[in-house]
Specification:
- The complex is a heterodimer of chains A (675) and B (299).
- Chain A is an alpha+beta fold.
- Chain A is built from 19 helices and 8 strands.
- In chain A, the strands form 2 sheets. Chain A has a 6-stranded antiparallel sheet with strand order 3-2-1-6-5-4, with helices on both faces.
- Chain B is mostly helical and 299 residues long.
- Chain B has a domain of 208 residues: Orthogonal Bundle (MetI-like fold), CATH 1.10.3720.
- Chain B has 14 helices and no strands.
- In chain B, helix 5 packs parallel to helix 8 and helix 5 packs across helix 11.
- Classes of the chains: A alpha+beta (675), B mainly alpha (299).
- The interface between A and B is large, with 96 and 101 residues.
Chain lengths: 675, 299
């Protein structure tokens, strides 16, 4: 790295550079670290809040289920509300009778006091219960957890509304809905602490560098060490904060379960003993006996700390003891993440320190300043290109490493990462053909290698046809003194001038099996009409015929231009020397055509390889995808099968093929340019 | 081949023109037949893609009649209906708006960059030019998937003209830069150098001297960009779902794709859509050829 002196003629100040680098590096570590820590603490707090909400809801639901109905439920609900100030309102609905059994909502007093039938406006409440019932049934039938059995809804004012089903003897008989006030905001890490992680290392560096002087290597090592220390320190204190928060959370959740259980038991115990579960009505005909006072089943607090499918998290038992082992393993996982992030951040910051410290930034700024006019001129187009071309291109490649389909398109990419799996399944699937039971060969038309073969055949046949026909016509048109040349020329360019999607549709119409003119001509000569799109070979022929028609004018024009630039003296001289017409063609015409034809052929190969419109509109891949070329096949995977990740990998493979071709032809043209 | 053997005389005689005319007439018929076909369907007033009905026991001449591109009845009803009964005028308007916007965006962004690549030498010039060339070589369909996700899912620009303009600009900008740079390369630098000696700033040189000289090239580039946007099918078909937002190509395809077989409307629409671009193309095709092969042909 060259040492560019600054304007004053002194050498660059290493202390300044490394100091600046260290400052930038520590700011990066501190800022990103602070942000990450805030997010992590917030997530932990929210996790805790959610669990606390579910616990109190489940506790209440269990108590209500055992209370039965009527006044008992109301007593229990009122008592529960007293103990839990975070619950703003509770409502209990029983399906039998569509009745609002109990409510602590301030709106449900006086005339609206429960028990009463649900009003029409409160249909949502009833629907919620039905949804939960359906969800439980689905989950039971499928044997798994797919639909939420506890519904959680975040209201616009920040409060959370939860609902859980009341189950009795395996049946859902109602629901309990609670609304919790918005939780207090999560504790944020101290800004002062974070700032100190920037100020302290830089100050240290400034002091120590006075001692070391301008020695580059020593300064570099010092800066690197200080940065590494900062990163490590920040990571360690972040981890300490996080694990403390999490441990405290687990303890408080376990404690809450214990107290809720105790209180619930109290409430149930305070009920009159006649509260019997409302399931059994005495069979008709028998005299109603005084039902024996059945004590309500004991509460099951261990199941309250659960997820949306009412599966217990198992992090604590009902008695307030935290399962240390499980919590420890959860913490281990988090620790690994923190370590990984710290190392990554530290490495990045280290690179920055090196770049700035060793003068890279100064060099960059110098270049920008020297060529600032040029760069400012290039900027608008470059900006557009980066936004519209390079970024999508890179994103496409990233997408090819995932398994994104239309169903998981909102999932973050890290969750659906599959690595090279798409590429492996595209490139290593060699099962192109197999023998059928009757001995015939059946081709797998979706196979990559079949499509590749079709694409290559497509390109070669079309380019050959275009060059041959175009060249012949150009030679004919180049004849001296030919009449009506401009007229011929204009008419012969028409296929190229027409928009190619229109001509593709025209040719598709002409090849129509019943009314198409091609079959009319075929029948004119006594043959049977051909069902063009029912066999791969004939279908390919239709596309080839269309594209051949489209592409010969381009070759013709190029060849004509090249032919017209050959001075006629060369031919004169050759004739005087006795060369035959064929010799003249081989030694004068062909070599002069090459510099024009070679780039034209190269362009034509690329265009034909990617000629989407013709295949898509003429054959649409019929029959059964046998005439697809690579690019239409990739389109089908993306927009008809909705496999975005797979299709992106397919497109990248196409890009790779074109790139190899580009490099290959670049070498070849360099060789043939010695003309 | 008879072409060559007829010309084997040693004198300065002209080779016989008659066989060449035969060949050329046949080739011309081959070239223009589909165009005549679509014209005859357009003027037939019917929706069928058969030029003439074929009786149940057709003779050779009956079939020949069905092949000759002259409609059985001449009528303008396809043309009037396609405007009156179908949203065709909306589609043409959409195409026009999108193409013009793409052209303006492309040329606008490309002018300064092309000038910089042509006149200045700066680090990253080679890499920049290569990236523009490479991105022009690789078609929009390769990036259709990320473009679709970005435009439709992230930016919610599906079925909008803005989204389509952004998508078209991905090929418009490199194309414009490439063509304009090629033209700037051919403008001699004497004028600029003289102006520099007289003390003009680079900005003045660009805006007051070079750009006015480049007006024909800018016009040609703009017209080609317009044509590319006008003729583009697949990006529009993928990004636009709403019928009212179709561009002309998607609309024309709509007439004959899938279950609808309204060839009369398709033909009439195709004729209307093609006339401007065919005329433009015939006028401009020599620039396209020289622009494409400039730089690759040495001498």
């Amino acid at each position: 790295m060259s040492q560019r002196p600054d304007g004053s003629g002194k050498g660059p100040s290493h202390r300044l550079r490394f100091g600046a680098g260290l400052l930038v590096g520590t700011i990066l570590v501190a800022a990103v670290g602070h942000r990450l820590l805030t997010t992590a603490l917030g997530e932990t707090a929210r996790f805790g809040e959610d669990r606390r909400a579910v616990i109190s809801l489940r506790a209440l639901t269990d108590v209500v289920a055992r209370a039965g109905s009527g006044e008992a439920v109301r007593t229990v609900v009122a008592g529960f509300a007293k103990w839990h100030p975070q619950v703003a309102a509770t409502r209990v609905v029983l399906f039998d009778g569509i009745s609002l059994e109990a409510s602590t909502d301030p709106a449900d007093t006086g005339e609206n006091a429960p028990p009463r039938r649900l009003k029409r406006e409160e249909k949502d409440l009833y629907d919620r219960g039905q949804r939960l019932r359906a969800a439980i049934e689905t989950n039971r039938a499928e044997g798994g957890g797919r639909k939420d059995e506890v519904e959680k809804e975040r209201l616009p004012d920040g409060s959370v509304s939860l609902a859980a089903p009341i189950e009795r003897d395996g049946e859902v008989v109602g629901l309990v809905e609670t609304r919790r006030v918005p939780p207090p905001p999560a504790p944020r890490p101290s800004l002062l602490t974070t700032l100190s992680y920037v100020v302290v290392p830089v100050l240290l560096f400034a002091l120590l560098s006075l001692v070391i002087g301008e020695r580059r290597v020593a300064l570099g090592i010092l800066a690197a060490l200080l940065l590494a220390g900062t990163a490590w320190g920040y990571g360690a204190q972040s981890w300490a904060k996080l694990s403390r928060a999490r441990t405290a959370l687990e303890a408080s959740v376990a404690e809450q379960v214990k107290t809720s259980a105790a209180r619930g038991q109290e409430l149930l115990g305070a009920l009159p003993a006649t509260a019997a579960p409302l399931a059994e009505a005495p069979p008709p005909g028998t005299a109603p006996e005084a039902a024996p006072a059945i004590p309500p089943a004991p509460l099951d607090p261990a199941s309250w700390d659960s997820d949306a499918f009412r599966r217990p998290l198992g992090l604590s038992d009902g008695a307030g003891n935290v399962d240390e082992a499980k919590v420890a393993s959860a913490l281990e996982e988090a620790k690994r993440t923190v370590t990984r992030t710290t190392v990554l951040l530290g490495a990045l910051a280290l690179v920055l320190v090196g770049f700035i410290g060793l003068g890279g930034l100064a060099a960059l700024l110098g270049t920008l300043k020297t060529h600032r006019v040029a760069y400012s001129y290039v900027l608008p187009a470059m900006f557009g290109m980066i936004l519209l071309v390079f970024f999508p291109f890179v994103y496409g490649i990233i997408l090819s490493f995932t398994d994104q389909t239309i169903y998981n398109s909102s999932a973050p990419l890290t969750e659906i990462w599959v690595g090279f799996q798409n590429y492996v399944s595209i490139l290593t699937d060699f099962k192109v053909a197999r023998t059928a039971a009757d001995g015939g060969i059946i081709f797998n038309y979706q196979n990559f290698y079949w499509t590749l073969w079709i694409t290559i055949a497509w390109t070669v046949t079309n380019v050959t046809y275009g060059v041959v026909v175009g060249l012949i016509l150009a030679l004919v048109l180049n004849t001296k003194g030919l009449a009506m040349k401009p007229a011929y020329r204009v008419l012969l360019i028409l296929p190229w001038a027409m928009p190619n999607y229109i001509t593709a549709l025209i040719w598709q119409g002409m090849f129509h099996q019943q009314f198409g003119v091609v079959n009319q001509v075929v029948q004119m000569f006594g043959m049977d009409p051909v069902s063009w799109f029912e066999k791969p070979a004939t279908s390919f022929f239709t596309a080839w015929a269309t594209n051949g028609w489209l592409s010969f004018p381009f070759m013709m024009v190029i060849s004509l231009g090249a032919l017209q630039s050959i001075p006629s003296d060369l031919y004169e001289a050759a004739r005087v020397d006795g060369a035959t017409r064929w010799q003249q063609f081989r030694s004068i015409t062909l070599p002069s055509l090459k510099p024009a034809l070679v780039p034209a052929v190269i362009l034509s190969v690329v265009w034909t390889f990617n000629m989407f419109n013709i295949i898509f509109l003429v054959t649409a891949g019929e029959p059964a995808g046998s005439t697809e070329i690579l690019i239409t096949q990739s389109y089908k995977f993306a927009f008809q099968k909705y496999q975005y990740g797979y299709a992106a990998a397919y497109s990248t493979v196409i890009f790779g093929i074109l790139l190899i071709y580009g490099v290959f032809q670049n070498r070849m043209t360099k060789g043939t340019e010695a003309i | 081949m008879s072409l060559f053997s007829s010309r084997s005389r040693a004198g300065a005689d002209e080779p016989p023109h008659f066989p060449m005319h035969v060949l050329l007439v046949l080739a011309t018929l081959y070239a223009i037949y589909p165009v005549l076909w679509v014209l005859s369907i357009a003027f037939s007033g019917k929706q069928s893609l058969a030029i003439a009905d074929v009786p149940s026991n057709p003779t050779f001449w009956d079939r020949l009649r069905a092949v000759v591109p002259w409609p059985a009845d001449i009528s303008l009803s396809n043309f009037t209906s396609v405007f009156a009964d179908q949203p065709f005028s909306t589609w043409i308007l959409n195409s026009a708006i999108v193409s013009i916007a793409t052209t303006i965006l492309g040329v606008f962004l490309a002018c300064t960059a092309a000038y910089a690549f042509s006149r200045f030498r700066f680090p990253g010039r080679q890499a920049g030019m290569m990236s523009f060339l490479v991105s022009q070589m690789f078609p929009g369909t390769l990036m259709l998937i990320p473009l679709y996700i970005i435009l439709v899912k992230w930016l919610s620009l599906g079925s909008t003209r803005t989204g389509l303009v952004l998508a078209y600009s991905t090929t418009a900008i490199p194309f414009c830069v490439w063509m304009l740079k090629g033209y700037f390369d051919t403008i001699p630098r004497d004028l600029e150098e003289a102006a520099l000696i007289d003390g003009a700033s680079p900005a003045t040189i660009f805006w007051r001297i070079v750009l006015p000289l480049a007006k024909p090239a800018v016009a040609v580039t703009a017209l080609f960009s317009f044509m590319t946007g006008w003729n583009e099918f697949i990006l529009a078909a993928t990004l636009i779902d709403k019928e009212s937002m179709y561009t002309a190509p998607v609309g024309l395809r709509f007439f004959v794709g899938g279950f609808s077989q309204q060839w009369g409307f398709f033909a009439a629409g195709a004729v209307i859509v093609s006339i401007p671009v065919v005329a433009l193309f015939l006028y401009l095709q020599k620039y396209l050829v020289s622009g494409l092969t400039a730089g690759s042909v040495k001498g």
